[in-house]
Amino acid sequence: MAEQLRLMHVHAHPDDESSKGAASTARYVAEGVDVHVATCTGGERGDVLNPSFDHPGIIDNPALITEIRRDEMARARDILGIRQDWLGFVDSGWPEGDPKPPLPEGCFALVPLEEAAEPLVRLIRSFRPHVLTTYDENGGYPHPDHIKCHEVSVHAFEAASDPDRYPDAGEPWQVKKLYYHLGWSYPRMVAIAEATERHGLTNPYAEYLDKWERKPEDEARLTTRVECAEYFHVRDEALLAHATQIDPDGWFFAVPREVQAEAWPTEDYQLVTSHVETTTPEDDLFAGLR
């Protein structure tokens, strides 16, 4: 393919682009791929998760979180070297309690699917990505916005190429490949445990690994491993840009970067749909397109 390759990631909140697939994003940017992130919500209902974060006025004016998270996103965007657009929906928040309370009126998770997908269809037809990534049907974890992001992404992936759907949203465009981000897996946890042991370090995830319910069907999802350890430092810089959300002393950074690179030097994906010929396992989201 002679034209510049284009990659679109669809995420639920600001910071998701940095915690999921950021090192492979940085690798593709370095290779000259045009990468665009679509952020579904502004993260308006997100809590401040970094205990060391201090901003004058945020306690008295929680609405500042929206402005702050937009500024954080701008910094992460510059670090990763990507384009980014807000789809304009309102964070649904994380419902707590048993039973869980109703979701807030007007939030992203409650927007009808046909309506919620329109801005993404429009953006796909404008940017014309060759590859699109998003979350699996469980949202990666069951946050209502992550699940909605999955639904919207799959719907838009299919609709963007159909001239009879969303006729006012631009010229149709067929995205060639659809992937789901895959995060932590049992083999990855074991690899990190073995690497920390080799280096005489304490495995910070040992308790989590002991409780892991291993499911071979989950491991079978992995089709594509993108080598990107060289860019783990970019991922970490982008994560730290989201200062309200990321504790610099937290679990994201609990294993030294060089040990992570030795144990598991890839970011992982599931190929869901391909309109080009490719063979799995792959080591490139653009396999079959280059």
Structure description:
With 290 residues, this protein is of the alpha/beta class. 34% of the residues lie in helices and 15% in strands. The protein has 10 helices and 7 strands. It has helices spanning 16-19, 22-30, 64-80, 113-127, 144-159, 186-198, 206-210, 216-219, 232-241, 257-263; strands at 6-11, 34-41, 83-89, 131-134, 177-182, 224-227, 266-274. Strands 3-2-1-4-5-7-6 form a 7-stranded mixed sheet, with helices on both faces. Helix 3 (64-80) links the parallel strand 2 (34-41) and strand 3. Helix 4 (113-127) packs across helix 5 (144-159). The longest helix is centred in the first third of the chain and has 17 residues, at 64-80. The radius of gyration is 19 Å and the shape is globular.
Short description:
This protein has about 290 residues and is an alpha/beta fold. The protein contains 10 helices and 7 strands. It has one domain (about 5-185, about 220-275): LmbE-like (Rossmann fold, 3-Layer(aba) Sandwich), CATH 3.40.50.10320.
